[in-house]
Task: structure prediction
Amino acid sequence: MKNILAAFLLSFSFLVPPSLCQAEDTSPDETAMAQEAFVYGYPMVMNYGTIYEYFIDSTSNQYKCPLNQIYNSAHVYTPADTSVVTPNSDTPYSFFCADLRAEPIVFAVPEMEAERYYSVQLVDLYTFNYGYVGSRATGNKAGKFMIAGPNWEGETPPGIDKVFHCETDFSMAIFRTQLFGPDDLENVKKIQSGYQIVPLSVYLGKPSPESPPSINWPKIDKQLAAANPYAYLAFILRFCPAIGEAKSEEGLRARMQKMGVEGGKPFPCCELTGAQEVALRLGAEKGLTEIREKADGVGSSINGWRVMNVQADRESYQGDWLLRAAVAMAGIYANDSIEATYPLARIDSEGNPLDGKENRYTITFPAEQLPPVNAFWSITMYDGTTQLLIKNPINRYLINSPMLPELNKNEDGSLTIYIQNEPPAEELKANWLPAPDGPIYMVMRLYWPKTEAPSILPPGQGTWKPPAVVKAD
Result:
């Protein structure tokens, strides 16, 4: 299956036939409502694309496991992994998608050595990060945790360290387990075997509740998603009840309903006029343009790197659906900045687009000025168009801090990384980060960034700044 998520980075202009764009009876208000719905739903439809490929469509080459089971990846991501844009290649992933309709689920993590970083990021159908387990959040000791759905009410069961309340009926969990090097893979596998998930009834040794209704999951691929994003949004909203904090969306959902988008009902939920159909198409096109522009400008520009302050929960977004969509376009499932901060680079020190076909580049960290982190850091290379990892002759997709003993430092103690499509001189190859033969997109990851100076926190205002990407002579 082609990459669903990358398809959202492509133009939706084909959705709007030129003849319809000239329709004089198209209401600006209806176009605005359609645009609002598109922006609101953009990350949710992206998220559904991943859930469908990973946990529903067993014929997909990206399929991981059924719902309410854990999948462990015994390798770091490579160019063959295409479901998620800008994946990291530092940490073998583990995943589950929990169906919380009938009852909560309980997941367990094992104890691990103090020097190994790991995290469990909990993401709901809105793409809100609503909870964390791991080295920073809960420490490296063993633990048991419970995820409860929006309709669950009850006491914390015995032996549970913490209960996380999810606003939606389904939740993804993304596990990242640090890999120190190729010879460390067996240790990571042993840790992953200790990640466990069971329904609450199994944990308590009680009878299971009645099974929830079966779901007719709509197929999604890039053509289907681009052709009818509103239909997918209506389907997803079925599992996103407007209760609790989500009651703040009642006005938005009423406006979407006027345009035929209602949770749990086929799209359109009501008969649409020709003008409304045009407005929906125009709204999708305008919405995608708006998200692109926001993604290009979000955050602070520091030495050519774009540094975003991400706190991806409902309270922090405060109804800014455009910002939520822009974060998803830049890299869906981004961690909160306190867990990991991500400087992004598309331009060099002179403000010109990075291009591996035309130029060679360097990044130099002055002596004693490597990224300040409690865990580790990396710089990962992506194709600037698809935002996916690129094939290269040495199968190197990043340079990270565990590789430091193998890298060559300059005489003054600084560290230079060589970014180019063709191999550099032999004496520079140890520090070579292969680039695509075309547009470049790079992501620097600072896992568990330090809070004391020097620090990148708060993002865009910290005392440590990423060094510029400089065009080589």
